[in-house]
Amino acid sequence: MKLLTAAQTRQADAATLQDEGIRSVALMERAATVFTDWLTARLAPTDAGEILVLCGPGNNGGDGLVAARLLHERGYRVRVGLLPADKHSADFEHNRPRLPAAVPVADWRPGKLPPIEPGTVVIDALFGTGLRRPLEGAAAALVRHLNAARARVVSIDLPSGLFADAPQPKDSPVVEARHTVTFELPKLALLLPQNARSVGRWHVVPVGLSPRFLAEVDADMHLVDAALLAGRLPARPTFAHKGTFGHALLLAGSKGKLGAAVLAARSCLRGGVGLLTVQVPAVGYAVLQTAVPEAMCLVDPEKNHLSELPDLQPYNAVGMGPGIGQDDDTRAALEDLLGSARVPLVLDADALNLLGANRPLLDLLPPDTLLTPHPKEFERLTEPARDDYHRLQLLRDFARQYRCYVVLKGAYSCLAAPDGQLYFNTTGNPGLATGGSGDVLTGLCLALRADKRLAPLDAALLAIYAHGRAADLAAAHTGQAGLIAGDLPQYIGQALQELTTAEEF
Ligand SMILES: NC(=O)C1=CN([C@@H]2O[C@H](COP(=O)(O)OP(=O)(O)OC[C@H]3O[C@@H](n4cnc5c(N)ncnc54)[C@H](O)[C@@H]3O)[C@@H](O)[C@H]2O)[C@H](O)CC1
Ligand SMILES: [K+]
User: Fold this and answer.
1) Assembly ipTM
2) How far apart, in whole angstroms, are the C-alpha atoms of residue 322 and residue 260?
3) Which residue ranges run through the membrane (predicted)?
4) Is 457 in the pocket of ligand 1 (CB under 6 A)?
């Protein structure tokens, strides 16, 4: 699924009107109806009390007016508060007189703002994608008043005051919603940690925007969902043998961190690799052979850390990083790897920290290398980000500059591709915030990069999605708090199977 900018969303609205030959008030009616359906499916009239609908001057406010009318028709008690404005949108003007007389309407002016009882259900229809500048004056006062009320706020399309795809000044107020019900496609702002307090939980409801426009529009941001991945993971051929799926080499572990090697190795095997060899320092030999008997094990000459590469000739992909530490010898081995590898590389954890501490090594990164930093590791590779938007810009720039794929891990992990496209993952849950879950991702990435049938982009997309999906499957048994990284590999197979394309008849 594509992620649109605010400007593209306006174009999508216009294309929909044109393609369907409908008036904009009809689209507003549709949007407000799906919003109202969403709300009434979750909130009975008896639990709602008197719903307060706060309406701004534009089409977001127009949506609010329609929702107020529909809620009244469905037996809810409703009142409307209007933000005073010099000018209203045409569709707002169209719907204002259509509010039933039984719905109380008042202007909500600064200095005379009525109290909002704690727990009141408030529909925030002040501003949506048309916000042009940070809120000030009457609008800012109203938002501050609402945020102080401890109400149950549901925002239409966006929490008011939040730009759809750009940062706002720290001191400009934004509605703090429990739920944001957004139309057709999520907006970038909903995916970023810095907006979590305003957005609450977000939900997408369909309004039927022009399929033609959505197919044609040139987006540079995407959501990684099952639809995006359809057809990217071919079924395993009947006459497959272990060579078909590649031989991966994993360089992992140091004294006290062999668990990282074990987790990555198990995950690589569950990711479908044909053969796996793991090189560990001597201290890890018995651990690896016992914990992961399916993998072959090479022993580094050093006892406690990795110091050199084996002959790379047999391998289709090499992964390095989980648990390796940052010894000088290990840095030398990494440098050797960057200089000599002729196959896809996956770099994580201390391999990234070594790169960050030795920036000239970045110029040695082979094209299409896959890096999987968390935000701190990414910062070591680049610079501290001013905010989440700036971090995405740095991510994009880095992927372009080094012609590599970078997964910035977190909720909605974001993959940047060498062409500057960004892909936000939709699977996973807070149970992944546990030690070792990144090592599992590394192993899975390595397996998919070793599979010669997969393009680099497809391997990375499949890996981040299946990793999150495995966590969702695991959490159904363990709960989120009880989820540990070792639970994940056993669900990778199912996650990949769900994505596998059946052979066409
Ligand atoms: N995408 C869809 O499927 C549909 C979306 N709809 C809704 O329409 C809004 C966008 O409406 P628009 O009129 O473009 O913008 P807003 O209502 O967000 O606000 C515009 C309004 O506010 C003024 N304004 C802008 N910034 C400020 C500010 N900082 N302070 C004061 N006033 C400001 C501006 O001048 C305008 O007057 C979208 O989010 C959906 O909710 C449609 O219903 C159709 C389907
Ligand atoms: K809103």
Assistant:
1) 0.96
2) 5
3) none
4) no
Same domain? For 309 and 360 the reply is yes
Ligand 1 within 6 A of 258 CB? Answer: no
439 annotated as ligand-binding: yes
DSSP class of residue 205?
A: E
Give the long-range contacts of residues 211-217, CB within 8 A, separation 24 or more: 212/15, 212/19, 213/11, 213/12, 213/15, 213/16, 213/19, 214/2, 214/12, 214/185, 217/2, 217/4, 217/8, 217/11, 217/12
474 is annotated as contributing to ligand binding: no
Round to whole Å and give the CA distance between 85 and 58. 10
Answer yes or no: do 184 and 207 share one domain: yes
Domain count, the chain: 2
Say whether 376 counts as a known binding-site residue: no
pTM for this entry? 0.96
Look at residue 504 and tell me if it is in a domain: no
Distance CA 224, CA 455 (A): 16
Taking 70 as the threshold, does the pLDDT of residue 505 lie above it? no
Q: Is 194 helix (H, G, I), strand (E, B) or coil?
A: helix
In a domain, 62, yes or no: yes
- Is the domain of 96 the same as that of 193? yes
**Predicted confidence (pLDDT) per residue in 257-268, tens digit:** 999 999 999 999
Q: What percent of the chain has pLDDT over 90?
A: 96
Q: Which helix (H) or strand (E) holds 152?
A: strand 152-156
> Is the distance from the beta carbon of residue 418 to the nearest atom of ligand 1 less than 6 Å?
no
- CA–chain centroid gap for 224, Å, is 8
Which pLDDT belongs to residue 503?
Answer: 63
Task: Give 481's strand partners.
Answer: none
Mind giving me the DSSP string for 72-132?
HHTT-EEEEEE---S---HHHHHHGGGS-TTS-EEE--TT-PPP--TT-EEEEES--TT--
Distance CA 71, CA 51 (A): 9
Do 288 and 400 belong together in one domain? Answer: yes
